[in-house]
Amino acid sequence: MSVALLSRATVVAFGFKSHLSSSTLFRSRPQTSMSSNDASRGRRQGAIRGEREGPDGGACRAEPHAVLSYESPFFTSDQQLQAQTALIVLNTPFQTLCSSREDGEEDLPAVLRALWKASSYRVCADGGANRLFDAVESARRRHGTDDDDHSEWTPDVVTGDLDSIRPEVRQFYENKGVSIVHVEDQDFHDLDKSLMAVERWFAKSASNQSRLFIYGGFGGRFDQEMACINALLAWGNKDTFRQTLFASYNEETCAFLLRESPVVNQIRIMFPDDSLVYRTDDSVGVMVGEGPTCGLVPIFGRCETVTTSGLKWNLDGDTSEFGGLVSTSNRVMDEVVSVGSSHPLIFTAEIVRKSCT
């Protein structure tokens, strides 16, 4: 495996630029299927390239398929792609697991900072506004900054049934010009109501390239975690979001929605195999990102076939389901992981902190 180096020239304001072209962040392109002569290469190559198995067990030609590339938000993207990135902040306790300052003082959560920087449209789900306000205010007081108006940390929208946001926080954001959208319908979670706001924002754009990050989808009540995972699929199937990377993050883990065949999912995370070396002149001295421990979870139901490349323990047309095979504690070994599957999956990875050299 080649060693990936991030030189000073590729380090930019907040986050780290991939050595890959930014145009590879999210691609959807038709590709031709395998020829019949390739069938002998086995199910793994067939599924990765879009082949389907015929009724007699042989390979048959598949329809042209799309390759969707998911690149870590810890890599910086260009302005055009940033303009189509939305972030939803949920009402869950913020975690600060490591210092981002040389003096050891705690700062705002590192993953939240990365997602906030990568996004251009930010929504707080009801009480998520309290969490954001309190974290920014606490950091401002600890560090003695003069940012009394939280200018760098002002959301675009606060929405939900608004039974959790404190009156003083609501008034603060209203004075800042934040749109406060009350949605009473109790048939929808505050996350759903936030997704409605993002859907309206995406609909105004002519671009079909977009990313949506949910911060705070893990930790706390299990039913709320499952509601977040359910939202990835339920909303990911809507026409507005069919070309959208859906991902949920907290400070310890993340989960991506992977699309089913004929889509082939290609994933580039911040920290693949430990043999990769990163170098930066950043004075912080710590880099945060996904990997290398990962998993593929058939949480939406039985997945008849799953085929991967780039993992330590690849699947080769295997069936994955609860009560049977579930790929956990796997490891990313290559810079690109490819996943082809008959049904939607969740790709999950740990969040790690690495000292820079």
Q: Which descriptors would you attach to this protein?
A:
357 residues; ten-stranded mixed β-sheet; disordered N terminus; 7 helices; alpha/beta; 21% helix; single chain; five-stranded mixed β-sheet
Briefly say what this structure is.
The chain is α/β, with parallel strands linked by helices.
Biggest sheet details: 10 strands, mixed
User: Mean pLDDT, as a whole number?
Assistant: 76
The CA-CA distance between the termini, in Å, is 20 Å
Portion of residues within helices: 10-25%
Taken from the alpha-carbon principal axes, the silhouette is globular
Compute the number of helices.
Answer: 7
Radius of gyration, rounded? 21 Å
The fraction of residues in strands falls at 25-35%
What ranges have pLDDT less than 50 throughout 5 or more consecutive residues?
A: 1-64, 98-105, 275-284
Oligomer: single chain
Order of helices and strands: HEEEHEHEHEHEHEHEEEEEEEEE
What structural class is derived from the secondary structure elements?
Answer: alpha/beta
Strand order of the largest sheet: 7-6-5-4-8-9-10-17-12-15
Q: How many individual β-strands?
A: 17
How would you describe the overall organization of this protein?
- This protein has 357 residues and is α/β, with parallel strands linked by helices.
- Residues 1-64, 98-105 and 275-284 have low confidence and may be disordered.
- Helices cover 21% and strands 27% of the residues.
- The longest helix has 16 residues, at 128-143.
- The protein has helices at 43-49, 79-82, 110-118, 128-143, 167-175, 190-203, 222-236, and strands at 52-53, 59-60, 67-71, 85-89, 121-125, 157-160, 179-182, 210-215, 244-249, 253-258, 264-268, 286-297, 303-309, 316-320, 327-331, 337-341, 345-355.
- A ten-stranded mixed beta sheet has the order 7-6-5-4-8-9-10-17-12-15, sandwiched between helices.
- It is globular and about 55 Å long.
- α7 (222-236) links the parallel β8 and β9 (244-249).
